[in-house]
Amino acid sequence: xxxxxxxxxxxxxxxxxxxxxxxxxxxxxxxxxxxxxxxxxxxxxxxxxxxxxxxxxxxxxxxxxxxxxxxxxxxxxxxxxxxxxxxxxx
Length: 90
Known about the structure:
This protein is an all-alpha fold and about 90 residues long. It contains 4 helices and no strands. Helix content is about 80%, strand content about 0%.
């Protein structure tokens, strides 16, 4: 039961990160008010896989070291935490 809730929350946060990257790319192309880099990074901290997919698919923020180094790092840390939690519970 708890695992299902955690999986759903991770999916929602990663989905939100993906959507934010898409929205920011559209705003960048249309020269509109943008989503701040801090907000994108904060969401990517919680949902790094959605952020990473959004970066790659939309080709957005791919030249900024904060993003192309930071987001894979966030993903690694999240995978390590998930592995530790699963190992402790099992």
